[in-house]
Specification:
The protein is of the alpha/beta class. The N and C termini lie far apart (about 55 Å).
Length: about 625
């Protein structure tokens, strides 16, 4: 049995003054909404407030985070406030790591971990309190959890729910949870000056040079660290190289990425006698609070995943951030003293942008969501209580994809047209539900056991049949991770020359296997520092390679649990590509000899990427270029 430590609230945090009101609301209501500005302390103090309110005695206090970086950082911070290390009274869990013990009472985790737990704990019996943090991000996992919790609260009167959000459209959450009270906690902000710096049309500098000019401008303003928001890891690497090449005096360039090892991530959380320029994606927008930030540079860009219903392709594309996200970024400075935010776009541009980022559920393929719902017997997606119900067209596409993959026992149900609105009613009784809902096939239930897009999971089962699962695990893990090949702006030709050794005339999938084998041959028995040097010399990202290796290891373990032959490799290249096509059949295209591009399903046309090994072929090969999967 856990011995509860003394609970102290930092007097300098704004949320401390609101702790009594939050405690009272938590005792009187099943769900409450706590919204707080940057620096309010809500993420670190809400679990402690729940503890002080008597929670955590009959179950865990669970706190979800949208990113593993935040889950780890918050667990460390709260454990430190109790004078402990993570893994004791305060634990954490994410996709690749877990530190929990029998003494753990507060558990930080990624939202995907909590969602996965519904398979064995439908009513979250392991918890007496759940905190859904950063709910304003409205990821698929968050919206899914909120819908499940709306139903669970009706059956578990002892469960308490705290929705924690930035001050963004919180009334939607209150309405969704039947008028749950909203408690607003102000942040600690000094005045912030906004400077608009759109690119000069005549000079038209690239993004790294724009960032460099802005850093020069802020360096003249006095001491203080600079936080730079960029859309992706490649942009961060390019900007880091540009700034490092300028040899700025008494300055540290610090990338902040979820893919970095924990030790490197901690550099962003440690103050220094030098000026720090921290280069981050939107992970620093709301999930974590960085000390010492006096200035912000906002590129105005973000990488968002969007599903194209016509091409049936999910793409990560760079888009302008919403007004709400831009304001969140600006709020990261001005906590210690008056701040300055340089926006690399114009004020007119800002006013034309979306007010909020669209929820992920309205811009994603729903095949995986439907598969999970059917596996967990949560009812039809048309009647599930989503805050923003997906369109009927997206639902039809999701069912169609599952049917194509062989995941459904019977044909998919008809879905009302977009002009019709399906009633958002509670699920019918089990007997009615059994007959009303589509049923997963035996294969579909096995697909649901893998934490992958259904198409990628289907590839692994086909690979088992083709006796090529060992190689398919490499390819599928690569498709789930970011490309480890780096092409710095100033050294693209050199990088391409070194990467050419990995290209294959068979397919880009075969190229990823070549890269995998080369890396493991070169690093067999090598130290981590040598592996890092090897990656740097060959324009490869060590953190991305580690993510790739970790994910393949995880998938291999899960496939072994499903009694798949993870060592099978006798099927050869043809067997591998047959397995890949089983999952990617809707992405098949045929070469047009007149235009030399490809015609795919649904009338789309596409071309092979110039960097592909197939693009280098002088003569068409039927197996490689007459038909291809994109």
């Amino acid at each position: 049995m856990s011995i509860f430590p003394d609970i102290r609230f930092p007097p300098e945090l704004p949320i401390t003054a609101y702790a009594p009101a939050i405690t009272s609301a938590l005792r009187d209501h099943p769900a409450i909404i706590v919204c707080g500005d940057t620096g309010s302390g809500k993420t670190t103090q809400l679990p402690k407030i729940a503890l002080a309110a008597g929670r955590g005695r009959r179950g865990l206090i669970g706190c979800t985070q949208p990113r593993r970086l935040a889950a780890l950082a918050m667990a460390r911070r709260v454990a430190e406030e109790f004078g402990q290390e993570p893994g004791g009274f305060v634990g954490y869990q994410h996709r690749f790591d877990k530190k929990l013990s029998r003494d753990s009472v507060i558990k930080f985790m990624t939202d995907g971990i909590l969602l996965a737990e519904t398979r064995r704990d439908r009513l979250f019996r392991a918890y007496d309190t759940l905190i859904i943090d950063e709910a304003h991000e409205r990821s698929l996992n968050i919206d899914f959890l909120l819908g499940i919790l709306k139903r669970v609260l009706a059956r578990r009167r002892d469960l308490k729910l705290i929705i924690s959000s930035a001050t963004l459209d919180v009334q939607r959450f209150s309405d969704f949870f039947d008028g749950a009270p909203i408690l607003s906690v102000p942040g600690r902000l000094y005045p912030i000056e906004t400077r608009w710096r759109p690119a000069d049309e005549e000079d038209d500098p690239d993004l790294p040079r724009q960032i460099a000019y802005a850093c020069d401008e802020l360096a003249a303003e006095g001491p203080g660290d600079i936080l730079v928001f960029l859309p992706g890891e490649r942009d961060i690497r390019d900007v880091a190289e540009t700034l490092s090449g300028r040899r700025l005096p008494n300055t540290e360039i610090i990338p902040l990425l979820a893919s970095l090892p924990a030790g490197e991530q901690q550099r962003a959380f440690r103050l220094s006698s030098n000026r720090r320029i921290i280069l981050s994606t939107n992970v620093a927008e709301t999930s974590v609070t960085l000390p010492g930030i006096r200035y912000v540079i906002d590129s105005g860009l973000v990488r968002l995943s969007r599903y194209n219903a016509r091409t049936q392709v999910q793409r990560l594309q760079i888009e302008p951030v919403s007004q709400a996200s831009a304001n969140q970024r600006q709020g990261r400075c001005g906590r210690l003293a008056p701040g300055i935010c340089i926006r690399l776009y114009g004020e007119d541009d800002f006013r034309k942008r979306d007010l909020f980022t669209p929820p992920e559920i309205v811009r994603s393929s729903l095949a995986g969501v439907i598969l999970t719902m059917l596996d967990l017997a949560l009812g039809d997606i048309e009647t599930f209580p989503f805050i923003d119900p997906p369109s009927s067209a997206m639902i039809r596409d999701g069912y169609r994809e599952l049917d194509l993959l062989g995941a459904l026992e019977s044909p998919p149900p008809s879905v009302p047209n977009a002009t019709q609105t399906a009633p958002r009613t509670p699920p019918p009784d089990a007997e009615t539900q059994k007959h009303a809902s589509p049923v997963l096939s035996a294969l579909g239930r096995r697909l649901a056991r893998l934490p992958l897009d259904p198409a990628l999971a289907r590839i692994l089962f086909a690979a088992h049949h083709e006796k090529v699962l060992a190689d398919a695990l490499i390819v599928v893990a690569a498709l789930e991770c970011d490309d480890p090949c780096r092409r710095p702006i100033e050294k693209q030709a050199e990088a391409d020359k070194l990467h050419a050794r990995f290209l294959s005339p068979l397919s880009d999938f075969a190229a990823s296997i070549r890269l995998w084998r080369w890396y493991h041959e070169q690093t067999a028995g090598a130290s981590q520092s040598r592996a890092r040097r090897l990656c740097k010399d060959n324009f490869l990202s060590y953190p991305r390679l580690r993510d790739w290796i970790d994910l393949r290891t995880q998938l291999e373990r899960l496939c072994a649990e499903l009694q798949l032959d993870v060592a099978s490799a006798s099927g050869g290249d043809h067997g591998l590509h047959r397995a890949l096509l089983t999952g990617l059949l809707s992405n098949l295209g045929k070469r047009d000899p007149e235009t030399n591009d490809y015609r795919g399903a649904r009338g789309i046309r596409f071309a092979i990427f110039p960097g592909s090994g197939l693009a280098k072929l002088k003569e068409p090969r039927p197996a490689a270029t007459d038909r291809t999967a994109y």
